[in-house]
Amino acid sequence: MAQDPSAGPLPEDLDAALSGITAAAVEVMPAVSYASITVKHEDGRLETVAPTAQLILELDRAQYELQEGPCYEAATSSVHVTSPKLAADERFPAYAEVAVAAGIRAQAGIRLFETGEATGALNLYSEEVGAFEDLGVLGDLFAHQSAMALDYAREVENLQAAVEARSVIGRAVGILMERFGLSDARAFGFLVRQSQQQNVKVRALAEDFLARSEKVYDGE
To answer: What PROSITE patterns would the database entry show (predicted)?
Structure first.
């Protein structure tokens, strides 16, 4: 399993939703000093997003490398994981030593979403011993509200992707119509047939066609 805490940018809407969740966790949840979100991708790769402090990137990375800790467990196997007294938690002996040395005394992981093989978990860090002993209803409520925010962000993201795809395909169809004297239906049908024959998505084929057309137009 590869572990990568900084694997590249997320779409703006989803990134904003995740950042809003971690910021709200620190602001409204009792005893939360820091927060982040761990995303386990379908290929097993672990990624940290929306950390509220640089320190959390290092602690998340330690959990991925050691394959132990509340954030690792919540992202890979358990729905909710709490460790109110991290120094004495026998489940995470190696990680607890790293966390306590960094000033973290308690920690919790809350599963936020599951999409196929991909999962996401909210990581809560506290400098107070005994924090998260009674996460209970508050944790469930926060997870529910966070999931709703993520669903909305995904809807916006998918809508934007659909609009962008339509624009790209429309431009490619327009060029085919002009260049070969085709109707819009026949030009679109040509793209669909090429997509099926080459086993690539229509949008990807349209993007490639536009790129090659621009090169020809520029005289390359």
So the answer is: ANTAR
3-class secondary structure for the chain?
CCECCCCCCCCHHHHHHHHHHHHHHHHHCCCCCEEEEEEECCCCCEEEECCCCHHHHHHHHHHHHHCCCHHHHHHHCCCEEEECCHHHCCCCHHHHHHHHHCCCCEEEEEEEEEECCEEEEEEEEECCCCCCCCCHHHHHHHHHHHHHHHHHHHHHHHHHHHHHHHHHHHHHHHHHHHHHCCCHHHHHHHHHHHHHHHCCCHHHHHHHHHHHHHHHHCCC
Domain ranges within the chain, ordered by starting residue = 12-134, 163-217
Cα gap 187→191, rounded to integer Å: 7
What is the CATH code for 12-134? 3.30.450.40
Query: Which CATH number does 163-217 carry?
Result: 1.10.10.10
Q: What is the reported pLDDT for 212? A: 81
Residue 3 has pLDDT above 50, yes or no: no
**Given this chain, do its domains 12-134 and 163-217 carry the same CATH topology?**
no
Report the predicted TM-score, pTM, of the whole model to 2 decimal places. Answer: 0.63
Residue 163 pLDDT class (50, 70, 90 cuts):
low
